[in-house]
Amino acid sequence: MTTSEGTNAKQDNTIVSDLEILSGMPVIKGTRILVYDGAASVNAGIPRDRILAAYPTIKEHHLDLAVAYAGANPLRLQVHLRLPE
Fold first, then answer.
1. Which of 17, 26, 44, 76 is deepest in the core (most CB within 10 A)?
2. What's CA 61's distance to the chain center, in Å?
3. Residues near 66 by Cβ (< 8 Å), separated by ≥ 6?
4. Domain that holds residue 50
5. Which CATH number is 63's domain given?
6. Residue 28 belongs to some domain of the structure
7. Is 30 within a domain?
8. Contact criterion met (CB below 8 Å) for 68 and 7
9. How many degrees, rounded to 5, is the angle at CA 27 between CA 30 and CA 51?
10. What is the secondary structure of the chain as a DSSP string?
C-alpha cells in the first residue's frame, strides 16, 4: 500500500491495496468499498447515516479515514489518447 507522509498508522491497517481486489485501488479492509467513493460521498455532503446505510459493512470512523487518505493521496486520472493514423 502506498501512503503519503503524515498519514495515520491506523490508516495503514484499515486501508489496503491489493491487485486482486479492484485492480489495486485502495479499499477499506475486508470490503470492496473504494476509499475514493467513500470520501467523495462525504465531501459531496451526503449525510453520513445515508452513506453508512448504503455500505453497512463499514463504520463512521472508516469515512473519516477515507477522507484523510483521499486528501493525502489525490486520485490521478490517466488519459491515453490515440491519434488517428
1. 26
2. 13
3. 15, 28, 35, 36, 38, 39, 42
4. 9-72
5. 1.10.10.10
6. yes
7. yes
8. yes
9. 90
10. ----TT--HHHHHHEE-BTTBGGG--EETTS--BHHHHHHHHHTT--HHHHHHHSTT--HHHHHHHHHHHHHS------------
Rounded CA gap, 33 and 22, in Å? 9
Question: How many independent structural domains does the chain possess?
Answer: 1
Bridge partners, 16 (sequence order): 27
Q: How far apart are CA 52 and CA 1, in angstroms?
A: 25
4 found inside a domain? no
Q: Is 22 within the bounds of a domain? A: yes
Residue 17 cell numbers, joined = 491495496
Whole-structure pTM value: 0.74
